[in-house]
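Section 3.1 - Work completed
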Amino acid sequence: MKFLLSLDYELFFGSQTGSSQHCLIEPVAALLRQLERTGLKLSFFVDAVFLMRLRQEGRKFPALQAEYDKIRRHLGELKQQGHDVQLHIHPHWLDSHFDGACWRITTKRYTLHDFPLSEREDIVRLCKQELVNIAGDSIFAFRGGGWCIQPFEQIADALQAENVWLESTVFYQGKSEDRQRNYDFSAAPDLDYYRFATDPVSADPNGSFVEVPIGSFRVNPLFFWRLAWAKKFGGKQYRSFGDGSAMVADKSYYVTRLTQYTNSVISIDGLKAGLLASAYQQTQQNGSRELFHVMGHPKALTPYSIDRLHEFLRLHSFDYITFQDLACLKPAVSDFGTQ
């Protein structure tokens, strides 16, 4: 089976964003030190709007310019080491500002859909160019911020215009009715990848986009009680590298996960890394699956999660891939841009 690990390279979006040093650079370094002998290469979905805002605000604040330069060097080094850089967009950064001491975050316009059509096209264009300037013209995959990509037809043209044809946000049976992070992937097929036209949960062999879903598995509500306990009482091994605070979801989001079985992304974030073995067993039960796609966030990594990933990889044999290895899935030129 092939193993794909994709990480959303981003800060926090709550009352405290945290620092690039603790949310990005240090956890990635810790992860790579542990995985050095495995040969695993990582795919980073980089929050390009954050980089744009760092560069823009850096004209007024030298500290932000220094932070931008550090991240630029970091991503360049990762690319040189064979890791992959792809497109991630959290557009609320466009409405947020730096006050000289910290970022003042507003998430009123949290998704691309919250912006007018002409602005969506500009955002995607500028974001891709930001990453091309750092990592080269090898960017063709996209992951929506907060898993918010629906309705996809409202952002499809903007992505197509920039030759972004691979989508990787969907996870099987995923659903959230939170007001800001609202998505419904209940109808998505349980496949390694598939083509689609305007709806990423509806396979279409003639579609001009390709969906590579994140791995998904069924989670017992008891896990989320253990997660709450570990965050409060678990000690340093369960403490994330990131020094920010997460967005607060609607109360119903937490109640659902604490009282019902739900589907979650297969992840190396925090305590979820301890579920890799059971998630892998669930994936293997679908005999047609050949890809084990795991995701995570550097900001949410913990000493425990890095150790659990290392142990999991030690006990299983995989062919490691990045999204660059999936470039062969691109629809023919005659298909791209047609519906």
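Second construct:
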Amino acid sequence: MLNPTISEWLNLIFRWIHVFAGIMWVGTTYYFTWLDARLTEEEKARANTGQTAQIWMVHSGGFYVVEKRKVPDLASRTLHWFRWEAGTTWLSGMALLILLFYLGGGALVDPDVCDISVGAAIALSVGVLIGGWIIYDLLMLSPLGKNEKAFAVVAYVLLVGVSYGLTRYLSARAAYIHVGALMGTIMAANVWMRILPAQKKMIAAINAGEKPDDRLSAQAKLRSKQNTFMAVPLVFLMISNHFPGVTYGDRYNWVILAILILVGWIAAKFIRRA
């Protein structure tokens, strides 16, 4: 057991890092989502002109012009990657999970909910995070992954099932945080295990003088799109930690959690259109 003062400082530091890194990650994700949507509109408007679609923006006293290319001029350009925002958010989140629930195991279990040992609860926690990513990834790679609406329905049913199950074995607060941690893990794994590798393969093809595989681009874009949908309910879950009376502390906490996830997805749909 950590010294209470040390534990408090670590809690503060990790939360600070986690929140700020999350702001950068979600902000970057939604910025590029907005940018891609505007460029798509420009591409359609200039379809028969032969002109390259561009977006002009003004910010902080300067004017910026951005254009989208499927085949970049890599030989004379520095390519900027956006990856450590996701990595830092996930690593700091896991540090908080370990600090608050694994080392302070009392917060992970609730005798009034289930007579489960701390060790078994930790095993369940790790299993949900790892197993959740594996199931999500396999579904995405299956034929179901090609049907966005059907995939969304299946994913929602599975998330509701996980939410119900966790509220029956872990403390209510831990259950809410773990559903958020599951979505955060999927989002970070999407970036590091699917999106970035796909982009690296595309760059390798360009450097070899070959045409990049459009399927890699489409898959990376779809994973990024799904990250924007998971981000909103994930933030809801983070905020719910401060409102136990109407969220995880309620008798029907898993129902409220299911509604929060659905509302978050609906909100993300409107934000993406803005």
